[in-house]
Amino acid sequence: MRLDAIKAAxxxxxxxxxxxxxxxxxxxxxxxxxxxxxxxxxxxxxxxxVNALGYGHPAIEMAIDEQSRKLIHISNLFFHEGxxxxxxxxxxxxxxxxxxxCNSGTEAIEAALKxxxxxxxxxxxxxxxxxxxxxxxxxxxxxxxxxxxxATHKEKYREPFAPVMPDVEFVRFNDVSDLKAKFSSDSCAxxxxxxxxxxxxxxxxxxxxxxxxxxxxxxxxxxxxDEIQSGLGxxxxxxxxxxxxxxxxxxxxAKPIAGGLPLGAMLCTEDAAQAIHPGMHGTTFGGGPxxxxxxxxxxxxxxxxxxxxHVNEIGNYFRQKLDQLKQKHxxxxxxxxxxxxxxxxxxxxxxxxxxxxxxxxxxxLINRTSETVLRFLPPYILGKQHVDEAIAxxxxxxxxxxxxxxxxxxxxxxxxxxx
Length: 419
Ligand SMILES: Cc1ncc(COP(=O)(O)O)c(C=O)c1O
What we know:
Blueprint: H1 3-13, E1 25-29, E2 32-35, E3 40-43, H2 46-49, H3 58-70, H4 82-94, E4 98-102, H5 105-125, E5 133-137, H6 146-150, H7 155-158, E6 168-171, H8 176-182, E7 187-192, E8 195-196, E9 202-203, H9 206-219, E10 222-226, E11 250-253, E12 264-268, H10 270-273, H11 289-304, H12 307-328, E13 332-338, E14 341-346, H13 349-361, E15 364-365, E16 367-369, E17 373-376, H14 384-401
Helix pairs in contact: 3-11, 4-11, 12-14, 13-14
The site of pyridoxal-5'-phosphate (PLP) has 15 residues, from helix 5.
């Protein structure tokens, strides 16, 4: 079927959950996607932060090929070779003790929320005072199921489905006094993204995350770091919280973990894990043999190819180029991010829309989030030539569509840092 026929069929048959771009991709190669007519697109979005090793990575193809011939699914009623191996790698990389595998980001968050409630219940049964409230942050995005959406800040995601999970309160982003005012022994968890993704690539401040750590430690509540977008190397470290010298009690992973196959994970401390017993939580598909084998291949390839070093190097290069672009175009009000989780905030939503459309015309895929923010989540294997291509395109677009005074921002701060 060609694009027009697919569009017509989907319009009739699918729930209208998505507004898709009118492109039909049929293949991927490295950092490029190829459409039905052979058009090549530079992909700076990687399936919203999923295709970290790009398209057609031989290690991923080989793992899928080999494991699919052996065993694809077995359920969690039986053992298979993959989960313990992968749990070992993930717990070593994260500093956590135990893992629970699921299929997506939102499921990892559900597992973390259930764990926080069960953990508080366990403490109460020991005579401690610990409530059921979850503190989340303004601009947060944690997913679309009833628990994760309750902790997602934008009202438009929650309101049509009310009442969502009760007992969630939002804290003003990076506002330590608001956190202190809202945190109490009523809180069973503080849930945060060390670098907010959907919310516009906003790193939390060191002061804020450290305050969240101290407060939760003081009562025994859990600090949950949602690393679904920022985790597994995206920011140049395995986990974004590692930039802050803070160790949470729980962390969640999904997007890049299994090279594009659905896999999520919730990792936690031994103490938190004590709250979960057989039958309390589970999943049919989660942590299946195929997804685990591919995740191991992704991990191995990242280590063998020194991918974290590359993310740091190319991320710095990209960041510098964006900063230079900001010096030249006053329409860019801020450049933010860490590693290859980057954003340029613009002075208008209209310009951001235009920039996105113009990039698409030039066959470069980026994304707009929080109305005014251009978000870059490229594959980790991005090269300098790809950064140069994207920057040259953005430069031309801003020159044409927002030709304001060059150098207007030359004296202002160069973006958000974590310090
Ligand atoms: C930080 C964060 N948490 C949770 C989710 C939800 O993940 P999923 O779409 O796999 O359910 C996302 C998805 O974008 C995310 O960025």
